[in-house]
Each structure stands twice: as structure tokens, then as C-alpha cells.
Amino acid sequence: MAEKLIIVMANTDPKNPEELGAPFFQATVAAAMDYEVEVICTATSGILMKKGFAEKLFVKEGSHKNVYEFIKDAHEAGVKFLCCSPNLDLFDMTKDDLIPECSGIVGGAYLIEELMEEDDTRVMTY
User: Fold this and answer.
1) What does the pLDDT look like over 8-42, one tens digit per residue?
2) Using N-to-C axis directions, what is the helix angle for 21-32 and 67-77, rounded to 10°?
3) Is the pTM of this model over 0.85?
4) How many Å apart are CA 13 and CA 16, to the nearest integer?
5) CB hemisphere CA count around 104 (13 angstroms)
6) If you placed Cys at 21, which of 32, 59, 84, 101 could pair as Cys (CB 3.0 to 4.6 Å)?
7) Letter string b/e over residues 89-103, b meaning 16 or more CB atoms within 10 A of that residue's CB
8) In what helix (H) or strand (E) does residue 90 lie, and over which residues does it extend?
9) What are the backbone dihedrals phi and psi of residue 22, each rounded to the nearest 5 degrees, phi first?
């Protein structure tokens, strides 16, 4: 049985915030089930790792819970967030611009290596 789940947010566009609830919710649930969980934010979702950005987004209009609160809930449950290295250039960010919940920066080889070398890892994409 797999022990690790990697959620890749590559097709989830923060311009459509209603898309953002499911990956964070699934990550939180998996962590609560004692799986090791990593969320890799890449492509347009990489901007979610920038301080101050996710606080402005709401999955549902009129909600009192912003997207950053979903990220914090997942992190508190044990989810590890990673930012893809090209996002720093794409969104004019430095490491200092990343939210505290972001554990680090990874390149494309990281995901490939995890998938090809670790038999106990599964991937979900959003």
C-alpha cells in the first residue's frame, strides 16, 4: 500500500478560485489519514505560495474562509507544500516571498525521481 501522496497543482488556475478547494481538502484528508502528503504548486498555481496572494481568494463568494486558510489547515494537518523553481522567475518572487507553509523549492526532476524511484508513492493532479 502506498504511504505517500503527491498532489501536483499544475492545471488549477487561481483565476478560478472555486477550483482551489478540492486539492487542499484532499491533501488535508490524506494527512489526517496518516499518509505523508506533499503538494507541489507549479504553473499558475505557484502564485499561491506568494505571501499575501491566497488571502485575497475565496473558494466560494461570501465565504469567510480564504484560500490561505485552506493552506494553513492542510499544513497544520501535516501537508508539506513545495513551490516549483520556475515559479520564482514567472511571478517575480524570491525565496523570501514564499509563505511560511512552503517548505521549499523543487525542480522538475524532483517529481520524476519521486515517481520513478519510490514504490510507495501515488500522485494526484489538479
Assistant:
1) 999 999 999 999 999 999 999 999 999 999 999 99
2) 20
3) yes
4) 6
5) 5
6) 59
7) eebebeeebbbebbe
8) helix 86-90
9) -60, -50
